Each structure stands twice: as structure tokens, then as C-alpha cells.
UniProtKB/TrEMBL annotation:
Belongs to the class-II aminoacyl-tRNA synthetase family. GO terms for molecular function: ATP binding; lysine-tRNA ligase activity; magnesium ion binding; tRNA binding. Residues 197-508 form the Aminoacyl-transfer RNA synthetases class-II family profile domain. Its cofactor is Mg(2+). Mg(2+) 1 binds at residues 425, 432. The gene is lysS1. Keywords: Aminoacyl-tRNA synthetase, ATP-binding, Cytoplasm, Ligase, Magnesium, Metal-binding, Nucleotide-binding, Protein biosynthesis. This is Lysine--tRNA ligase. It catalyses: tRNA(Lys) + L-lysine + ATP = L-lysyl-tRNA(Lys) + AMP + diphosphate. It comes from Microbacterium lemovicicum. The keyword Secreted does not apply. It is found in: Cytoplasm. One of its GO terms (cellular component) is cytosol. NCBIfam families: lysS_bact, PRK00484.1.
Length: 511
């Protein structure tokens, strides 16, 4: 019995009849597994061989023989393995489509005239959709022009005890996220996204290498969290009998490396923030941070633009990308740079400066329907108002420059504009993709900023930073002027592909 279609996976909403059918199919497949064990004659035992004599991959055969004419024979024998994703059995000839990990496919033709009655009957009785099968035989093109293996011998390399979902109907988003292994089997876009992510990471590393950067790894378990304003995850070390934090950012350690003389340094690794989850936020996410000595926020913005444009070309071949919904988005050219305060004043129709009193911002926010931010400060109100008036109007990639000083405790003050810091946020596709600083390197001012943050923390702000004496001690040994940036890898994939964050993360956290 070979099932040529199968119900949805158990995590989708399916009927009691469909659930019963899955259990029935599982029982049938387990019985076939027992038969495979009984028929094994080698010393290893078990249902499946330890290895199979593969000589070629499916994509390699498609590359070599993809232009065969219908009915053409090659005289070349190949041994390939793949997952059965389609099966059709007739009296004297069986057809199966084998799929490799990258989605490439080849047809296997099992003929009575070639393999004999016993082998053909075994194929019909034992092979199901989802099984990994090894076949060996001549490479040919079928009468319909499909690249095929005319099978002379075959074996089941691994049996799928549970049926696959229907290959011709979409899994819903929840099923794709919860059962990514099935998503990768049945959906080309899922595999393409994995490959796109790998290309992005390779491109980022290539760009950094071209600019003389060194890749390092810094601790994920930290004695105290820092480097960003976020709520951390807390765990406990039995060995040290101490509470530790999963890092929210690698910043303070990477800056230690700069102090130590690694003038151009970066890291691509995981961050953890104990906050909300939505279409652009995940509690666990991949982060890139980089620091370049003797640069500033303008230089690091140039580098960030180059990295993103190179990554787009690596994935799509162009800086004009096509999103999942068919929209084209241009990442090319020179990106706009606009002032946060100037753009807010223009959009709001009134002057808002770093010197605007907090009570005026509070009254104006209430007037236009902007909710008060938690633990309100001048800077937090300015940023909330900017998002209300300006953010939605950004269409091209845009660096939003020069932020309020009280929301940016690790950034140096602007060289010519009092009350702001040299920081930018990069907005692409309507969300913040990256942020960059002229780094604060003065340990005296940095300590003052940490003290201010500690006061906010004491008043209940769970995202406020703590005083990090070890980091301050490093700064006291002298850190050169430096430009730094941070970017979410998952969000970069979102900008290039148009997908949501749960689609760009291979195995996202779900309840």
C-alpha cells in the first residue's frame, strides 16, 4: 500500500477522521518497518542501512544531464538518494519523484523488465511518501522528457513513520513555524530563506574582511547586562552560585576589545531580550555589532549601507529586491539622512528642539493622541512624537540622525548641536533595521550617564542600564574615537525578502 497523499500535520486543526487516518497510516508504516527488519540479512540488523552507495547528487545530475531530449539514453549509471515526494504505481512500471535537500528532483522509474517481479512487488508494498530511498540505474530522459533513473536496484534508506502533509497545499503560518522540518520539505520558499540567510551572513563577513575587520565571540552569560536598554532574561549558575544574565547586546565586551587594540572588530551572534514578540520582534534573535576605531557615526553609516547593499546583491543579484508579496524595493543608491528634531518639527508644524521643556512635550503629546511613554523623559517623548508624525512617511532607506541625549547613554554628544548625541537609526521597509553611534569614550561622562540610568532603574525602569565598573575601568585605559553599529540579522532578511520575522528565523520561539 503506497499513500500518494496525506493529511495535514497534527498541529493544524484537523478533524477526528483525519487524526484517525494518521494513526492508521502510522500503524501500517510501522508494520512495514518490522518487515524491513525481518528481511535484513547483514550483521548490522535494524530497519535501515548504515549507509548507501551514493555516487551522484540530484542537483549534480540535473546540472550534467538537464538538457537531454525526450527518450534519450546516456549509458551512464548513477546511484542517488532522496526523499519520495510523489509516487504512482502501475502494473509493470512504478514512478517516484525523489527530492534532495535543496529541493532538486529527479524521477525514479522501477520497471518489471529491469528489476524483476520480486523487487517491483517489494517497491509497491514497502515504499511510501516521505521515505528516503536509494536508487541506482541508468540516467535517461523519459518519453515525456523528464530526467530519470531507470532503476536496476533500490533500497529504503530511512522510513517515514508519519505521513507528509499534502505537497500541493500550503501549510498555514502556525504550522510552518511549529513544524519547520515539514515546511522545509514541502515549501520551496522555506528552503530559499535558509539559503538566503546563509548568503547574507557570508556577504557580511566578506565585506568586513575587505575592510580589515576581525570577527570575535563575546560572552552570552554575563554577570550584569548592558549595551542596550532592554529587559534581560535571568538564569542561575550552580557552579558559581550566582545569578547571570543572558546578554541583551555584546557592545560593552566588543568595546573592551577595541580598548585592547583590536581596532576593527565585529560579532554575529545571538541576543536575548525578555520583552514582547510581534512581527518585527523575537525574544531571541541574531545580532551583528561592529566597531571601527578612528571613525564616527557618518563613517559607520557608509559601511552599513555598503554591507546591506552587498547582502542584497548576494541574495538576489541586485540592489532592487522583490518581496514575498511581489513588491519591488530599491536598496540602491545613496540613502537619505535626516535630522530627528528637524523632521519632527516639519511634520508636527511646530518647533521642537533639544531645549523644548518636558511639560510642553507632555501637553503636545496629549493634544495629538500620543500616549505617555513609561518613565517619561524629554527624549522618550521626542522619540514617541517622531514615530507618530514621521516614521510612517519614510519610504526609501533612511538614516534618522541626532537623537536626544537622555535616551542614548552610550553615545557621545554631538560635536556642534547641544542636547543631542551622534546617533542614527536606519529605517527600511517601515521598521528600524540598524543603529549607529559615535561612541562615548570618555569614562568620566560615561560614569555620569550610568549613574543617571541607575536612578531611572531605582525608580522602576526595568530597561535602564546599570553601572558597569569593569567596563568603566577598561575605558579608563583609553579607547580611541570609534564608530559603532548594531543590526538584527533577522530584520536584514526581512528587508531583503519581505517576510515576517518568524519566517526569517529557522526555528523561532513559540508557545
Amino acid at each position: 500500500m503506497t499513500d500518494t497523499s496525506s493529511p495535514a500535520p497534527a498541529d493544524q486543526e484537523i478533524s477526528a477522521e483525519e487524526i484517525a487516518d494518521v494513526f492508521e497510516q502510522k500503524a501500517v508504516r510501522l508494520a512495514k518497518r518490522e518487515r524491513l527488519i525481518a528481511e535484513r540479512t547483514d550483521a548490522a540488523g535494524g530497519a535501515y542501512p548504515v549507509s548507501v552507495p551514493v555516487t551522484d547528487t540530484i542537483p549534480a545530475l540535473r546540472e550534467r544531464f538537464g538538457t537531454l531530449e525526450a527518450g534519450e539514453e546516456t549509458g551512464v549509471t548513477a546511484g542517488v538518494a532522496g526523499r519520495v515526494v510523489f509516487s504512482r504505481n502501475t502494473g509493470k512500471l512504478c514512478f517516484a519523484t525523489l527530492q534532495s535537500g535543496d529541493g532538486s528532483r529527479i524521477q525514479a522509474m522501477v520497471s518489471l523488465a529491469v528489476v524483476g517481479d520480486e523487487s517491483l512487488q517489494g517497491w509497491k508494498e514497502l515504499v511510501d511518501l516521505g521515505d528516503h530511498v536509494f536508487v541506482s540505474g541508468e540516467v535517461i530522459s523519459s518519453r515525456r522528457g523528464e530526467l530519470s533513473i531507470m532503476v536496476s536496484e533500490w533500497t529504503i534508506a530511512s522510513k517515514a513513520v508519519l505521513p507528509l502533509p499534502n505537497m500541493y497545499s500550503e501549510l498555514n503560518e502556525e504550522s510552518r513555524v511549529r513544524s519547520r522540518f515539514l515546511d522545509l520539505i514541502v515549501r520551496d520558499r522555506a528552503r530559499e530563506t535558509v539559503l538566503a540567510r546563509a548568503k547574507v551572513n557570508a556577504s557580511l563577513r566578506a565585506t568586513f574582511t575587505a575592510h580589515g575587520f576581525v570577527e570575535v565571540e563575546t560572552p552570552m552569560l554575563q554577570v550584569q547586562h548592558g549595551g542596550a536598554s532592554a529587559r534581560p532574561f535571568v538564569t542561575h549558575s550552580n557552579a558559581f552560585d550566582a545569578d547571570l544574565f543572558l546578554r541583551i547586546a555584546p557592545e560593552l565586551y566588543l568595546k573592551r576589545a577595541v580598548v585592547g587594540g583590536i581596532d576593527r572588530v565585529y560579532e554575529i551572534n545571538r541576543n536575548f531580550r525578555n520583552e514582547g514578540a510581534d512581527s518585527t520582534h523575537s525574544p531571541e534573535f541574531a545580532m551583528l555589532e561592529a566597531y571601527q576605531s578612528y571613525s564616527d557615526y557618518n563613517g559607520i553609516a557608509d559601511l552599513t549601507q555598503e554591507m546591506i547593499q552587498n547582502a542584497a546583491v548576494a541574495v538576489t543579484g541586485s540592489t532592487t529586491v522583490t518581496w514575498a508579496d511581489g513588491t519591488e524595493y530599491d536598496l540602491g543608491g545613496q540613502w537619505d539622512r535626516l535630522s530627528m528634531y528637524d523632521s519632527l518639527s516639519a511634520a508636527a508644524g511646530r518647533s521642537i528642539t533639544p531645549q523644548t521643556p518636558l511639560d510642553e512635550l507632555v501637553a503636545f503629546a496629549a493634544e495629538v493622541g500620543v500616549d505617555a511613554p513609561p518613565h517619561p523623559t524629554h527624549g522618550k517623548y521626542v522619540e514617541e512624537l517622531w514615530e507618530h508624525f514621521v516614521k510612517s512617511g519614510l519610504t526609501r532607506p533612511t538614516f534618522v540622525m541626532d537623537f536626544p541625549v537622555d535616551t542614548s547613554p552610550l553615545v557621545r554628544e554631538h560635536r556642534s548641536i547641544p542636547g543631542v548625541v551622534e546617533k542614527w537609526d536606519l529605517y527600511v521597509r517601515g521598521f528600524e533595521l540598524a543603529t549607529g553611534y559615535s561612541e562615548l569614550i570618555d569614562p568620566v561622562i560615561q560614569r555620569e550617564r550610568f549613574v543617571e540610568q541607575a536612578a531611572l532603574g531605582a525608580s522602576g525602569d526595568v530597561e535602564a542600564m546599570r553601572i558597569d565598573d569593569e567596563f568603566l575601568r577598561a575605558l579608563e585605559h583609553g579607547m580611541p574615537p570609534t564608530g559603532g553599529m548594531g543590526m538584527g540579522i533577522d530584520r536584514l532578511l526581512m528587508a531583503i525578502t519581505g517576510l515576517g520575522i518568524r519566517e526569517t528565523i529557522l526555528f523561532p520561539l513559540v508557545k
